[in-house]
Write a structure and sequence with these properties.
Elements (H helix, E strand, L loop, with lengths): L4 H9 L11 H9 L6 E7 L3 E2 L1 H9 L3 E9 L3 E4 L10 E4 L1 H6 L1 H6 L3 E4 L3 H11 L4 E5 L1 H7 L2 E4 L9 E8 L13 E9 L5 H11 L3 E9 L7 E8 L5 H10 L3 E11 L3
Parallel strand pairs: 5-6, 5-7
Antiparallel strand pairs: 1-2, 1-9, 3-9, 4-7, 4-8, 10-12, 10-13, 11-12
Length: 266
C-alpha cells in the first residue's frame, strides 16, 4: 500500500516500475510465482526486533530466489487526525513490527496497541474512523499521503532502526566465477538427526573461508522440535570454493539449497 515501508523501499529500488500493493507478504510473494508480477520486495529483518518470520518461512518453503538486499532506515512517527495532540490519543494502530519497535513510547504514554496488516492500511483506517483518540505509527510519507498530522517523530526505541528488504524473483542469478568484491549468498538447509551434524556443516563452511553474516533457525511446520537453518555468507558461491563447499555439505544435510545471491556494493 502506498506509504508503507515496503512501498517506500520498492520505489527506491525500482524507480520506474509499476508498483502493485498486496494485502500480505504471502500474496505479494505468490504474485511473482504466478507471473503476475516480476519482482516482490519484502522485509526479512529489522535491526531492532529481528527476523520477519513469515517472510523467512516463504524463503524456505517457496520457489523464489533473492536477487538483491536493500537497507531502509526506519523512522517511526505517531500520526493522528488534524489538530490532535498526544494527550488525546488513547489507542494506536500499526503493523506488529512497528508496534514492537516503538514499545517503550507506547508503554510510557499508556497507549493501547492495535495490530494491523501494515502501517499505511492502519493510517487509512484512522482516517476512516475519524476518531481523535486513535493514532497510527507510520512514516512521514504516510502522513502527507493521508492528510494526517505528525504528533511525534522518531518514536522508535532504537535510534539505529533499519529494515533489510529482499527482492525476490523466479530466477537465481549466479555471479561470475572470478567476481569477489561484495558478493554474498544465502543458503537454507536442514541437518540429519545425528550427533554433531550442525557442527560439521559449520566447520565445512569455515574451512572454505566463507564468513557467516548470520545464522538463524526456524521451526519446521508440522514437525515438532525440528528446525531449518538460514545462513547468509560473504563470498562467491559460484567460485571453486563455493562449489566444493556445496558438495561437502550434502552428505550432512537432508535438504540444502541456494535461495539467493546478491552484491552488497550495488
Amino acid at each position: 500500500v502506498e506509504g508503507a515501508f515496503a512501498h517506500i523501499a520498492s520505489k527506491r529500488v525500482f524507480e520506474k516500475a509499476k508498483l502493485i500493493g498486496y494485502p500480505d507478504f504471502a500474496s505479494a510473494y505468490n504474485s511473482v510465482v504466478s507471473g503476475e508480477c516480476d519482482r516482490a520486495c519484502l522485509p526479512i529483518e529489522n535491526s531492532n526486533v529481528g527476523d520477519v518470520g513469515s517472510v523467512m518461512d516463504l524463503v524456505f518453503q517457496g520457489s523464489l530466489y533473492i536477487n538483491a538486499i536493500y537497507e531502509l532506515e526506519i523512522d517511526q512517527c505517531l500520526l493522528g487526525l488534524k489538530g490532535t495532540n498526544l494527550s488525546d490519543i488513547k489507542k494506536v494502530m500499526s503493523h506488529p513490527q512497528a508496534l514492537s519497535q516503538c514499545k517503550e513510547f507506547i508503554a510510557s504514554n499508556g497507549l493501547e496497541s492495535i495490530e494491523f496488516g501494515n502501517t499505511a492500511l492502519a493510517a487509512k483506517e484512522v482516517v476512516s474512523l475519524n476518531d481523535p483518540t486513535i493514532g497510527v505509527i507510520a512514516s512521514r510519507e504516510t502522513a502527507s499521503l493521508y492528510g494526517l498530522d505528525i504528533i511525534r517523530e522518531k518514536i522508535n526505541t532504537s535510534r539505529d532502526n533499519t529494515t533489510r528488504f529482499a527482492v525476490f524473483s523466479n530466477t537465481l542469478t549466479y555471479p561470475k566465477k572470478e567476481s569477489k568484491i561484495g558478493e554474498n549468498f544465502i543458503l537454507v538447509f536442514t541437518v540429519k538427526n545425528e550427533a554433531g551434524s550442525l557442527a560439521k556443516t559449520l566447520n565445512i563452511i569455515g574451512a572454505h573461508s566463507f564468513n557467516m553474516r548470520n545464522l538463524r533457525s526456524r521451526p519446521l511446520k508440522g514437525l515438532m522440535w525440528s528446525y531449518y537453518f538460514f545462513v547468509e555468507l560473504e563470498g562467491n558461491i559460484n567460485s571453486k570454493d563455493g562449489q566444493d563447499m556445496m558438495t561437502e555439505l550434502k552428505p550432512f544435510c537432508d535438504l540444502l539449497k541456494i535461495v539467493g545471491t546478491y552484491n552488497s556494493n550495488k
